[in-house]
Write a structure and sequence with these properties.
Structural class: alpha+beta
Strand content: 25-35%
Radius of gyration: 17 Å
Largest sheet: 6 strands, antiparallel
Helix content: 25-40%
Shape: globular
Number of strands: 10
């Protein structure tokens, strides 16, 4: 389907819930764990009518192409970094701001952008604060808000309600929220899960 040289140009990360771990392991799907998410990798093959045809990267592909998981991860995130988009959803006179982070082409995987240090740094600049929270709205989009917008329990409830009423089950990431803070010169994420 693709040549090994093309692989590094066509692979992108997609974050999904860790609830998929057992099924992915059985199916041989390559994944890395991060907080309560799994990072999977999709190879985008061609433009189709309503999107891009993809295949999930599998452990057998690592052997076939003789490449390491680290090289795949590095290429996937470098490709994503080149197509990240920031959309201001709200910026009112009271100073309340909300920014969605997606892929410019609006395909699967935009939520993985919250794992990029450059995205975290850029959002800190855009908001003028190091204290942000990422709210997953699907596997394709994550919303950044200041931590002062609400208590964690309120934000967790909001994410859960949106997942239950507005997001298709196959598009859901998690019901968790992901606070960001500056530590040792790096913007780091942590996770807060619902109880």
């Amino acid at each position: 389907l693709f040549k090994s040289a093309e692989l590094f140009e066509k692979i992108y990360p997609v974050v999904v819930s860790e609830n998929n771990k057992e099924n992915f392991a059985k199916a041989g799907i390559t994944f890395d764990r991060y907080l309560d998410m799994l990072i999977t990798y999709r190879v985008e093959l061609m433009q189709m009518n309503d999107g891009i045809g993809t295949i999930r990267f599998q452990d057998s592909h690592l052997e076939t192409f003789g490449i390491s998981r680290q090289k795949i991860r590095k290429a996937a995130f470098a490709n994503l970094e080149g197509i990240v988009d920031f959309m201001t959803l709200r910026d009112d006179a009271s100073g309340f701001k909300t920014i969605a982070v997606t892929r410019k082409d609006m395909q699967f995987g935009g939520a993985a952008a919250m794992l990029l240090p450059s995205v975290r740094r850029r959002l800190a600049e855009m908001f003028g604060t190091d204290s942000l929270v990422f709210l997953p709205s699907s596997i394709s989009e994550v919303i950044a808000v200041p931590q002062t917008v609400g208590e964690p329990e309120t934000l967790l409830t909001m994410v859960h309600e949106i997942n239950e009423t507005k997001v298709a089950p196959e598009e859901r990431l998690t019901d968790s929220i992901y606070p960001m803070r500056l530590a040792d010169g790096e913007y780091r994420l942590s996770g807060i899960r619902p109880r």
